[in-house]
Write a structure and sequence with these properties.
With about 160 residues, this protein is of the alpha/beta class. The chain is built from three helices and seven strands, in the order βααββββαββ.
């Protein structure tokens, strides 16, 4: 099975690289020190500090493997190549939500970077997927669990 391509902005790439560096260095050393300290307490068969430290070590190592795989399969969105004629990955889209009578702006990103609270929506989300490929002035309908949302695309930028 081939790994899924991970689409990232330069900002997203930098964050993943920083997290990986932190986990490989600082965090690994902290966990190793906790294990060493827990071992000094003696019998590990009933040593909850040791069990917790070993579990944390497994989580850290698992996240390192996950990050390495994501970075290996990363495709970086080059902001200079973002087309402002149609919505695509890397586009900033200002839309008018017809039902709520309000303007909203989203940045279309890969699922790894999606953060709706920061107005970053995934190209795989219902709204993101529906907007992809549409142009300024078009009205887009999005099927969501509550029904259908309608958005008018007001502006597309980088």
């Amino acid at each position: 099975m081939s790994a899924k391509e991970v689409v990232l902005t330069y900002e997203g790439l930098k964050k993943l690289e920083e997290e990986l560096e932190f986990l490989r260095g600082t965090k690994r050393k902290e966990v190793a020190e906790r294990i060493k300290q827990a071992l000094s307490f003696g019998d590990i068969s009933e040593n909850s500090e040791y069990d917790e430290a070993k579990n944390e070590q497994a989580q850290v190592e698992g996240r390192i493997v996950q990050l390495e795989s994501m970075l290996k399969h990363a495709r970086i969105i080059d902001e200079d190549e973002v087309n402002t004629d149609v919505v695509s990955l890397g586009s900033k889209v200002k839309i008018f939500d017809i039902e709520f009578d309000e303007e909203v702006e989203y940045l279309i990103v890969g699922s790894t970077e999606a953060n709706p609270l920061k107005s970053k929506i995934s190209n795989e989300s219902p709204v993101g997927a529906a907007l992809i490929g549409h142009s300024k002035g078009e009205t887009v309908e999005v099927q969501v669990p509550d029904g259908v949302l309608k958005f008018k695309i007001l502006e597309i930028s980088k």
